[in-house]
Amino acid sequence: MKSSVIVFPGSNCDRDIASALEKMQFKNQMVWHKETSLPKSDLIVIPGGFSYGDYLRSGAIAGKSLIIDEVIKFANSGCLVLGICNGFQILTETGLLKGTLLRNKNLKFINRDVNIKVVNNKTKFTSKYNLNQILKINIAHNEGNYFTDPNHLNILEKENLIALKYCNENGEVDEQSNPNGSLKNIAGIFNSKKNILGMMPHPERMVDQLVSNTDGVNLFNSLLN
């Protein structure tokens, strides 16, 4: 499977996701933000980090980069697109995903492992997980508080477009297990065609038992499958 990772000035997780993809046997290429064409790709990843130093607001400048027009074309043609953390923010800036990521409820940067629940496992991103499976995944963000209008929130719930929710170790979704204030504890969402996933947690950091755990592995296995 061929993947492309988009690299912006300020990205700091592009090498992490590239390493995870290569570990999982993807044929990966790194694509600089000033490029105007993408190589043939089955998967495009917009990585985490602080593109353009998060000036204006997170993802705002990256969302206007030259390569983004190609990402939008590929996404609209059905190519799989994964946006992680800052990548999720960029996807909302481009309009590929609806909603926005606001400042965390405590107005502080958060970097820790949290529990998340797999809400929909019938997609190309999540098929190797069990429904309601609890994962421990790292988060590292200042603007991870997902917000959208009531009509879109209703669509997300009705059409099963919520991918992941923050929960406690028992799988209970409550205010105490919500690290950033996201609506309905949302940690990740799909677009209507389910070929685009935006998520705040970092699955690429959870692919090696020696340094963390392997709870992120089945996201990549799902894509390969």
Question: What can you tell me about this protein's structure?
Answer:
β10 and β11 form a beta hairpin. The chain has 225 residues and is of the alpha/beta class. The chain is globular and about 45 Å long. The chain contains 5 helices and 11 strands, in the order βαββαβαββββαβββα. It has a 9-stranded mixed beta sheet with strand order 2-1-3-4-11-10-9-6-7, with helices on both faces. A two-stranded antiparallel sheet has the order 5-8.
Q: What topology emerges from the helices and strands here?
A:
Blueprint: E1 2-7, H1 14-23, E2 27-32, E3 43-46, H2 68-76, E4 80-84, H3 86-94, E5 100-102, E6 110-118, E7 134-141, E8 145-147, H4 150-158, E9 162-167, E10 186-190, E11 196-199, H5 217-224
**What Rg do the Cα atoms give?**
16 Å
CATH architecture: 3-Layer(aba) Sandwich
Order of helices and strands: EHEEHEHEEEEHEEEH
Q: Which structural class fits the helix and strand makeup?
A: alpha/beta
Give the strand line-up of the largest sheet: 2-1-3-4-11-10-9-6-7
Total beta strands: 11
How many domain regions?
Answer: 1
CATH topology: Rossmann fold
Under CATH at level 1, the class stands as Alpha Beta
Distance between the termini: 10 Å
Number of DSSP helical runs:
5
Average pLDDT works out at 95
CATH homology group: Class I glutamine amidotransferase (GATase) domain
> How much helicity do the residues have?
10-25%
Low-confidence stretches: none
Give the strand content: 25-35%
Q: Main β-sheet, in a few words?
A: 9 strands, mixed
Note the overall shape: globular
